[in-house]
Q: What sequence folds into this?
């Protein structure tokens, strides 16, 4: 799957995207991440891509033309979608991640400053927010989406089983009957008893016994009863 990110900071995610799972996914050519800097279409010496808002008000607005030209330069595949990051957009969730993972290409526009000239709406499919708070740009949201979507693609995770019982998974077989959202059970690993000292007192935290029993039926039932 291809991700195309339009940003005036094309190197801001370099370190994150080139580690661990996403690094391997790119190496295995399961995903390709392209960056497109709208400054390449700026007309002046200073590569200006923002301007003052008509009607007045604080801050600067990203100009439409460099963004439009950048969009035009990108090669679209058959199943592609263009999104604009906007804190007031549709909230990104696991269902949206799943929907995006079925595309060939996700084109993302990262806003900066006070946002983007509203006429960009004509050239996008959806506005997406990663949560009800305001960030300085859409680059972190892009990183969040690239990661959440990539891990749903076949071959990206070392162990595909991890996806099956993950929180928010929509696999109806294992979906928690009562709640709409499937929540994963809590995990424990060695040591069986964790010892620590608090305010001079020795304390212990033990792993639930059933998980050490080797009885798979009881473990399944315990996990079904004990969601995070
Ligand atoms: N003036 C805008 C407002 O009040 O809604 C905020 C602009 S913000 C400083 C700059 C850019 O960051 C936005 O255009 C958007 O692309 C991105 N951004 C900020 N918060 C975001 C969020 N929660 N989800 C997605 N994108 C966000």
A:
């Amino acid at each position: 799957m291809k991700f195309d990110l339009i940003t005036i900071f094309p190197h801001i995610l370099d370190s994150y995207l080139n580690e661990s799972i996403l690094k391997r996914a790119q190496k295995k050519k399961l995903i390709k991440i392209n960056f497109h800097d709208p400054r390449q279409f700026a007309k002046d010496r200073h590569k200006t891509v923002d301007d003052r808002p008509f009607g007045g008000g604080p801050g600067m607005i990203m100009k439409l033309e460099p963004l439009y030209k950048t969009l035009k330069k990108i090669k679209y595949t058959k199943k592609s979608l263009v999104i604009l990051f906007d804190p007031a957009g549709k909230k990104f969730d696991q269902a949206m991640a799943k929907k995006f993972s079925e595309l060939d290409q996700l084109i993302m526009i990262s806003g900066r400053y006070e946002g983007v000239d509203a006429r960009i709406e004509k050239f996008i499919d959806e506005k997406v927010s990663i949560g009800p708070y305001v960030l300085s740009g859409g680059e972190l949201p892009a990183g969040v989406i690239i990661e959440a979507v990539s891990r749903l693609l076949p071959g990206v995770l070392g162990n595909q089983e991890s996806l099956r019982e993950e929180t928010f998974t929509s696999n109806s077989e294992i979906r928690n009957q009562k709640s709409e959202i499937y929540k994963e059970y809590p995990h424990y690993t060695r040591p069986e008893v964790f010892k620590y000292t608090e305010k001079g007192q020795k304390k212990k935290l033990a792993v639930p016994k059933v998980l050490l029993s080797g009885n798979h039926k009881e473990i399944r039932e315990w996990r079904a009863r004990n969601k995070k």
About this structure: The first strand starts at residue 2 and ends at 6.
